[in-house]
Amino acid sequence: MKKILLPTDGTELGDYAYELAHKIAQKTKASIEVLTVVPAPAGAIFDPDGRLRNDEGEDFSDFYEEKVAVEERLERWIEDKPDIRYTNVRIGHIEEDILQYVKNNQVDLVVMGTKGAHGMNEFIRGSHTGHIVNASPVPVLCLKCDRSGMLIHDILLLSDFEEVEQLDLGILKDLLYAFDAELHLLRVNTPKHFATTRQVKRNMERFVELNGLDKVRFHIYDEESIEQGITNFSLENRVDIVAIGTHQRKGFDRLFKHSVSEDIVNHLMQPVLTFRV
């Protein structure tokens, strides 16, 4: 892991996301870059330099004044954050600009808040996060509250483990190695999706071997729904981060449909690491 992107408006959620990104950067020697997007007017068109096109004589001065104000506020915000190497403020469309930045700047991990906005027209909301989580080509680590005091000892990986696949778990492995954390594999059994303990554990063992994992514990939890199972298991056990795949295929997509992964990101209190499989 070399580069972490922190999309923020420099307010409370940004503080929460920074503390977690900072914790990871210290352990992995990664750099942190900050991106703030001032929301453009609906239907805005940009020239090749990224400036709002003024074809109809519109007055965009308010947006440029807001951009300058955000830049000044962001400069103050990073004064005591020496591991932030670069900041970028632009006028644009939040989801599109974050995803474009990820693709164009060799970002390895995105760390961001899941809801709430201060000072601008709702910079990061659950809907923005949900879209980014489901479209990002790199893992996204989302959090809802202050985790500055969190020690990363236990990471939970959720799956149905019905299809054993080799996945790109590079960032997950980086976190496990950097924090010397233990990995927990969890299958939530529901009335509609039930599997025997013997079969699940057998598939978990194959999954561990295929993906080169160690320091792993297996768990099977019975509940009425997947979301409730994850929530209750996390409350009953010491879980620091929950990892979940998005855009799944084969056996995975029965478990991780868009609504399930987005619900987990938006409602689970623990930080959630999503990755594309």
From TrEMBL:
Residues 1-144, 173-276 form the UspA domain. InterPro entries: Rossmann-like_a/b/a_fold, Universal_stress_UspA, UspA. It comes from the Bacteria. SUPFAM superfamilies: Adenine nucleotide alpha hydrolases-like. Belongs to the universal stress protein A family. This is UspA domain-containing protein.
